[in-house]
Structure formats: C-alpha cells, structure tokens
C-alpha cells in the first residue's frame, strides 16, 4: 500500500507520496494539471538546475547565503543537472504560464536532497529561490537549454551537408534532365542538383547560428516584473559568470528587463529558423522521392537503400520510408513553430504566459531536426545508387534540349522544332537538321548535353 506524508504550504496541508523528493506545491500542480501526461523536457530541467547552482554561488559571494547552505544547494542542483533525479519532475508542460510550478518543483527537490545529503533544512523560497522569480528564471533557462543543444544541431546539419557533397562528387560526370514545374527542362549535372541541396542547408545552418547568438541576453535579474525587486543589483552578473563556468555558455543580462520578460521574440525568431530548416528537408526529401519513383513507371533516376518491405499486400514493393518519415517530422516542426509564434503574442503587460510551451517546443524541434539530419544522411543519402542507363535514355529523348539552339535559330523556330519532334516522336537533331541550315556536325556540337551544364566555359 502506498504511504504518504503531510506537508504544508501557504494554502494548507497537502498529502505527498512518502518517497517523493518534491513538496506541496509540486503535488498541487500534479493534481491541477492532469492534461497531457508530458512533463517538461529533461534537458530543460538540467539547465534550470545549473542556474540554481550558479544562483546559490552568486548569493554566497554577495554574503546573502552562508557557505554551508550554498554548498548544500550546489550539491543537490548538480545531482539534478547530471540527470540522477529526472523522475522527480513530473509536472505537465501545460501548467501555469510562467512555469512557476516547475520552478517550485526544482526548489522543493533541492530542499529535500539537501536535507538527505547534509542534514540542513533549507527554505525553497527564501534560500533556493533567493534573488529570483519564475518570471526571470524560466525565460533564462529556456535560452540556456536552447543554446546548449544548438551546437549538436549545427553539427548534424554539417554532417548532412558533407554526406550530400560527397555523394554528389561521385556523380560529377553525370548529366540528366533538369525539371521545372515538374516538366522537362534543359540539362543539369546530378552533382549540381546535389550542390543546391547542400547550399540550402548551409543557408539554413547560418540562419540558425545567427538567431542562436541572439539568445545570449537573458531576463535574469528582473525578478517579478523587470524592476529587479528583492534581488541584489550584482546578483544577475555574478550568477551568469558562475553559469558560464559551469555550463560553458556565455549569457549576458538583458539591457531591458521589461522586454526580456514580457516577450519571447528571440525564441520565436530562433524557432522560425528551425522551421526554415524543416522546409529545406521537406523539399530535399520530396526531390529524392520523385527521383527514386518507379522502378518502371516513375523517374527511376536513383535507387534509395531498401530498408524494409513496403507493403502488406503487394510483394516485392519497397518504399522511400526515410524520406516519408523526415517529411512527417519536418511537418511536425513547422507545427511546433506555429505554436511558438502564437505564444509570442501572449505577452500581456509584464509577462509572457506561454513559457513552458515555448520551452518544450524548442526542445522538441531541436531534437527532431538533429535526428532527422543524421538519419537522412546515414540511411538514405549515403546509400544512393544511380541508374545511369535510365538517366541517359531520358536525356536523349528530351526535346527541350533544343533551347541550346535559340542563339543560332531564334526562339520561334526552336519552338516549332520541339513541337514537331514531340508530335513525330523523333530525335531533336534529325528534326533540326530538316528545319534549319545547320550541319549535323554543328548540331551535334550545339546539342551536346555536358557543355550545356557549364555555360560560359570553354
């Protein structure tokens, strides 16, 4: 039979599971918000614990917290940030909009751990939360957690870029039909097609890197409404110095605390750039799916790795499952960004009250996109095989290659040549020889596909 203990907060007595490290405010939140069953991300909880540890050290430096009490907080917070107590943070992400429930969850767990480890009885508000408010602490933790995960995302994007570039170099000599509006167009080298994807990813990576740099200013020091009530004037700067040493992330105190606490504009900008990466991945995967389509009735230009049977009813069918999964994932990221964008509108007066949702969605988007880039690179791009015969046959039948004759014959005559070749299902070279005064040798030179992919070169 489950045993309970009774603790008291400002609203009265609360029954709490005997083995729980949290206290009454956490228990109330668990009872108040049985909504999704999804707690705040562990990565965010670890970042929040790092700030608590740094805050204790700052308050000890300021003479506001005795050394032994500071060390008790630090020891407990370090255990939390190391992931040893993740199960003690069960509050639903859909909770009070400031994240106060999660902040108090952290304070209460630190109090109980400190009592276990050192025998000291700390106060969750007066000591663990000294100089802080959920209103400046939670936004700061969002920025910290996002910046901590950002390098691994950038590395994953680079890995995908490098895999695409390496695969493209394998096909440097291969010319294929270009396509616009999904219709035949002038020739392009497969390497050039791959380079376009790589450049899109590089642009997305640079945008994410830039918007991440805009997350450095944080709300810490503003306390309740941005005025800094009940905190030491030097608290924020000292805490952020300690945090830089602990986390390796350099944050700065926001120049205007009222903006920092009333808005999540910088988070929304970062999320929008994550959405931009998701859009690139969708375009890339759709191109791959079309190029892989077939094997008989589609483009059949490439073959993606066969990873699993594709149908429960059609034997032998293999589908582009990685591309489909990445498209779904990227669509989800776009949805997460939409929610962040709507959250950015919810900064009434001195506080944005959608902070837990912003924290969760940024964490999920980063995680999903990181995994998407890795999986797409390793399970799809790296194993692409090219169907050279199919590509050559399609290119040889492409009438739009007559575009290369426009400088010599003019647009109108070339259009007539193309239409006749298509109607009669004959090669462009033969029809052009009939309808123009160019020799076969000249036509072969002008219609050679490879030089057409390198205009302006000798």
TrEMBL record:
Gene Ontology annotations of biological process type: aspartate metabolic process; tricarboxylic acid cycle
Record has Glycoprotein as a keyword: no
InterPro entries: Aspartate_Ammonia-Lyase, Fumarase/histidase_N, Fumarase_C_C, Fumarate_lyase_CS, Fumarate_lyase_fam, Fumarate_lyase_N, L-Aspartase-like
Pfam families for the chain: FumaraseC_C, Lyase_1
Species this chain originates from: Aestuariirhabdus litorea
Name of this protein: Class II fumarate hydratase
Keyword Oxidoreductase assigned: no
Keywords for the protein's UniProt record, in alphabetical order: Lyase
Fumarase C C-terminal domain boundaries: 401-454
Highest classification ranks of the organism: Bacteria, Pseudomonadati, Pseudomonadota, Gammaproteobacteria, Oceanospirillales
Coiled coil: none
GO molecular function: aspartate ammonia-lyase activity
GO cellular component: cytosol
Signal peptide: none
Start and end residues of each Fumarate lyase N-terminal domain: 12-335
């Amino acid at each position: 039979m489950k045993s309970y203990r009774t603790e008291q907060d400002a609203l009265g007595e609360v029954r709490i599971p005997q083995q729980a490290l949290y206290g009454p405010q956490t228990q109330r939140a668990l009872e108040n918000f049985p909504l999704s069953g999804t707690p705040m991300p562990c990565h965010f909880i670890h970042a929040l614990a790092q700030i608590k540890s740094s805050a204790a050290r700052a308050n000890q430096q300021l003479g506001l917290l005795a050394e032994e009490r500071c060390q008790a907080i630090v020891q407990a917070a370090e255990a939390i940030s190391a992931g040893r107590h993740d199960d003690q943070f069960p509050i639903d992400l859909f909770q009070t909009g400031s994240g106060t429930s999660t902040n108090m969850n952290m304070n209460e767990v630190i109090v109980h751990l400190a009592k276990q480890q050192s025998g000291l009885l700390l106060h969750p508000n007066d000591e663990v939360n000294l100089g802080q408010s959920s209103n400046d602490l939670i936004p700061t933790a969002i920025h910290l957690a996002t910046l901590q995960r950002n390098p691994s995302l950038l590395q994953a994007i680079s890995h995908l870029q490098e895999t695409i570039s390496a695969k493209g170099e394998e096909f440097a000599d291969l010319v294929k039909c270009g396509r616009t509006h999904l219709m035949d167009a002038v020739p392009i080298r497969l390497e050039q097609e791959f380079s376009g994807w790589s450049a899109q990813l590089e642009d997305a990576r640079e945008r994410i890197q830039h918007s991440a740099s805009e997350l450095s200013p944080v709300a810490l020091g503003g306390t309740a409404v941005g005025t800094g009530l009940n905190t030491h004037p030097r608290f924020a700067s000292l805490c952020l110095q300690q945090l830089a040493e602990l986390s390796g992330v350099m944050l700065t105190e926001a120049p205007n605390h009222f903006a920092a606490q009333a808005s999540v504009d910088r988070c929304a900008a970062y999320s929008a750039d994550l959405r931009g990466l998701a859009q690139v991945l969708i375009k890339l995967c759709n191109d791959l799916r079309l190029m892989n389509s077939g094997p008989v009735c589609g483009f059949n230009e490439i073959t993606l790795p066969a990873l699993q049977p594709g149908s429960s009813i059609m034997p032998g069918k293999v589908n582009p499952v990685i591309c489909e999964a990445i498209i779904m994932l990227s669509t989800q990221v776009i949805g997460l960004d939409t929610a962040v964008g709507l959250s950015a509108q919810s900064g009434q007066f001195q506080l944005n009250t959608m902070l837990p949702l912003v924290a969760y969605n940024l964490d999920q988007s980063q995680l999903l996109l990181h995994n998407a880039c890795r999986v797409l690179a390793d399970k799809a791009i790296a194993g692409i095989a090219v169907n050279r015969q199919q590509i050559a046959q399609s290119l040889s039948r492409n009438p739009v290659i007559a575009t290369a004759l426009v400088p010599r014959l003019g647009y109108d005559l070339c259009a007539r040549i193309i239409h006749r070749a298509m109607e009669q299902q004959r090669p462009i070279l033969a029809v052009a020889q009939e309808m123009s005064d160019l020799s076969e040798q000249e036509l072969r030179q002008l219609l050679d596909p490879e030089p057409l992919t390198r205009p302006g070169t000798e």
